[in-house]
Fold this sequence. Notes:
The chain is an alpha/beta fold. It has helices spanning 24-37, 51-61, 81-96, 113-125, 139-147, 167-175, 197-206, 210-220, 232-239, 248-255, 270-278; strands at 3-5, 11-13, 17-18, 41-43, 69-74, 103-106, 132-135, 155-159, 179-183, 224-225. It has one domain: NADP-dependent oxidoreductase domain (TIM Barrel). The model has no long low-confidence stretch (mean pLDDT 96). Keywords: NADP, Oxidoreductase. Residues 21-258 form the NADP-dependent oxidoreductase domain.
Amino acid sequence: MQHVxxxxxxxxxxxxxxxxxxxxxxxxxxxxxxxxxxxxLLDTAAxxxxxxxxxxxxxxxxxxxxxLFVTTKLWxxxxxxxxxxxxxxxxxxxxxxxxxxxxxxxxxxxGDVYGQWRAMEAAHREGLARAIGVANFYPDRLLDLIVNNExxxxxNQIETHPFFQRTADHALMRKxxxxxxxxxxxxxxxxxxxxxxxxxxxxxxxxxxxxxVVLRWLIQRDIVTIPKSVNPDRMAQNIDVFDFRLTDDEMAxxxxxxxxxxxxxxxxxxxxxxxxxxxxxxx
Length: 283
């Protein structure tokens, strides 16, 4: 497994396993299968409702804690957010059955962002999170957070796939030593990703699947990625991407697929901001 080094020296696998949209009742088995396949980075969130199942899989795996890299995320907190955020951190750790996470992310750039970040900085200083970062932050919001706070986010997890490649975001993150992490790397199959002629043609040239081509493309861009599957065969296939390399021409062909627009939801859309901000988590 290839690793990247975060801006505070913590090492993180470049490829991991995400559990978004896996029902809680199926998550323990899926994570157990992923760990058996060799994954060591696990990505969950309070909003996913499956932290407990991830924790059970970790507990029952027998894998030493220091070999795992566990990420979870903070949902939107109202002002004043410091105490609420601390409770959210403790709740996630209890559900996971862990005394710390390796990465704790602010899930959305909304709510009392500065109060949330101050509380996350405190959790980091206390050893509850080895690194802290954000998700879904566009460049303006990310830079604002960087210049006005003590700790620069270690990671920004954003929608990134062949149809929305985030090149400007990537350049800004590289400039400020923030690690780019992709969610939605397969675009959930939209735009016929898994049968796209450009991606399929590249896959055929390497005797690889389209999914493997996309993951290899992300890795060669130095982007951490967290593909999800509940199929053990696909899990094994998705992690088997370190023994081939895309050519410069193939990378350029994929770059030409970029539309520059989201396929899911726009964080600049007032209606989406209102919808996300209305969501609340129990506990």
